[in-house]
Amino acid sequence: MIPPKSPQRATRRKKSARGGRAMQRRAVWALILTLVMALTAVAAAPGARAGDFPSQPLRLIIGFPPGSAADITARLVGAHMSETLGQQLVIESRTGAGSGIAAEFVARAPADGYTLYIGTSSNLTNAAINPNLRFDFAKDFAPVTPLTLLPLILAVNPSLGVASVQELVALAKSKPGELTYASVGIGTVPHLSSELFAVRTHIKLVHVPYQGSPPAVTDLLAGRVSMMLGVASTMLPHVDSGKLKALAVSSVKRAHVAPNVPTMVEAGLPDFEAGVWFGLVAPAGTPRPIIDKLSAAANDALAANEVAAKLRAQGFEPMGGPPDEFAQFIARETVKWTAAAEAAGLRK
Fold first, then answer.
1. Domain co-membership, 287 together with 300
2. Residues β-bridged to residue 281
3. pLDDT in tens, 22-64
4. Other C-beta atoms lying within 10 Å of the C-beta of residue 22
């Protein structure tokens, strides 16, 4: 006969479980605080005055090819910033490694404000699955201003013959390991989001990485890959033309540019939320007066009606804000995507 469980022992187990969850919450908040302090420290570096800055053109580095969401953000915001600052912002694309090549280049650049980078959430997701990066986003960059936010759209080639997320999942389950998905690179937000989608729906997909959205979408249109979670700015023109079928958006609410496309939550995936953001950062150690001048110019651009209208027309949501708030946002995003990488089994 099995003896009855001791009430005292059960109580101790409940207290232990509550204590474990409390320790996890404290650990998460401790990580956020550490990241905020690191990011705020590099953004607050003292140094030269900004009165005579800039006295020459600035380089704005992006990690994705022309026509990508990073490129669109850089060109629309950068053109207005050039007018405000009185010097040209020259856009330069350095693709590869999920924007890691561009990030490392800027991280090693002089901290004088003349070499800037369009940082992205993909830098954080890349770090979450790749412990061997040769730069640390929290320590090697000074946050300037968050620029734009984009939801992801899950789309398929119409030849796949599915019209909903449920039909896609059913097809994938009937052909395990046969359906493919495109991403804009290993370690990027679309990559992690697609893997998380596969884990949550219990399907097996094959990853096909590309160096940016344009070549990935080209192959999706040609039917060489089955599906893609891509940024709205790249996917929507082809959805509107009927060349791609949109099944869901990754935002909490339906996207204003695609009101008829259901969210992932509506499609049956509770708590599924993902998006790609782009923000302006400078090398760590850039003097704070220069950071503040760049931030003011970027915020002026985002507040300009013509810039905001052009961004929204392509699916972007303008962001904006001061450097310290951007640092806090990056810290929260780091925790979020680290947890997502663990859930998807990609954390190394």
1. yes
2. 117, 143
3. 555 555 455 555 555 555 554 444 555 667 999 999 999 999 9
4. 10
